[in-house]
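Suppose you are handed only two things: the residues of a chain and a line of SMILES describing zinc ion. What would the bound structure be? This form records exactly that question and the answer produced for it, so the two can be stored side by side and reused later without any lookup.

QUESTION INPUTS
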Amino acid sequence: MSVVDVQAGCFRNLLSFSFRKKRSEREKNDVPTKSARRPTELPVVQVPEAKLEESERPGLSVKEGELPPYANAGFFCAHSNAQAYADLVKPPAYSSCELGEYFRPEVLETIEDTLEKLNPALRELSLDILHHPEIQWEEKRTHDTLTAFMSSHGFAVTQHYLDLPTAWRAEFTHTSSSNADAKLRVIGVNSEMDALPGIGHACGHNLIAIAGVGVALAIKAALEKHNVPGKVVLLGTPAEEGGGGKINLLDGGAYEEMDACLMCHPSPGPPNYVSIGPSLACQPLEIEFFGHGAHAAWAPWEAQNALDAAFLAYSSVSVLRQQIKPTHRVHGIVSGKDWAPNVIPDYAKMHWIVRAPTWAELVALRERVKACFEAAAHATGCKLTLKAGPGYYDLRQNTPLGEEFAKVVKDFGVNAQFDEGMAASTDFGNVTYALPSLHPCHTIPTKPNGANHTPQFTEAAGTPEAHAKTITVMKGLAATGFRILADGEFTAQVKKAWEEQMIE
Ligand SMILES: [Zn+2]
Ligand SMILES: [Zn+2]
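ANSWER OUTPUT
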């Protein structure tokens, strides 16, 4: 066998080559053959179980096998999760908004009646979406189901809106003869649709989908019954979980005519609680390291190791995390193809997500993270390519809209607070930068450590209790949306507040 043959062959060929070379020497010296000496099993090493001694800490005892309960408060963007949980167990009194009489109580009655009648159909719709999860940009069935539902309830529907295969638009306009020529105000509502790979509707977007439908239909009923002119536009917004569907819709002008836009999101947390807080700005990054493959034992010096580059990048980011703010997040994964331990990988791919409380902070943090990838490429001699995915802006909740919503849901026993918000991100943040918007996060009953993006949350999103909590939120959003259409003075306040929030 020539040297060239060995290099072109597999690990087995290489072994047989070196083994054959030495056999004659062994035979000469009467040394046992390699196969006779090779143990069939490695000796078992007993590792003693480590015992963690901890002093008793009252109030923080956890049963064996359970994570501490304050892990549930992880969605709140607080400096200390434990403190955040302690604060939330006893929700603070209203501080940021004064609650008074809400706008036109008779309209709220219409909204309540409408949602009560729709309740069984909305429940059916929610379970149908839950049991047929579709990931980002593949929400075909959900698109068809929801557009058929809106059509059958008197909305003008545009399927595959703006050439996005799973986006849609449903609109309803009510004009009254007295002011047929006046410019109508427009309220926007969003229905999310996408699930997560492998774990279904683990972010509860089935509940968001039906919330959008319920809010739009309740506003329609109120406009008709109380003869108030106005337009409701419900957008079916695909690909929230990383695809940035709302950014495509924004770029295509879908939000341009809206005076304000509303949606909601389920989350874990204390019962009957709604968080009206910010979320983190977010930027996905796709990194590729291109190296040169080689035999891992025969000629490792010929290689540029792309897997090493990925591990160096991972380690560098891990070290960087110690020097970033507690409100910042950097997290990622590494993947490759056709890897084998005896071949030095010539390619590695990484997906990272960088998050910070504002887009401006994110841009600064992103540069520091980028330096980690560049350093890894330099150290290993690999080529680096870096692609930035859709950037999600932080969520800027409109204060008057939030106060109006809080007033209404308080009547249903729900405590809505302008709090620290969530340490997650949404493409609705970009909508809040473009126009006055509201995105309350309402709590639904969840199992311990079963927050968003876990299979336990998928289960929670299908319970009758979660459905009931979402119906209450629909009442608050529909009443708030109706006021935008019916009360010009309120809409002016909402717009003024948005302008002020955007120059902060
Ligand atoms: Zn999610
Ligand atoms: Zn979500």
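WHAT STANDS OUT: Residues 1-24, 31-36, 57-62, 67-98 have pLDDT under 50 and may be disordered. DSSP finds 15 helices and 16 strands in the chain.
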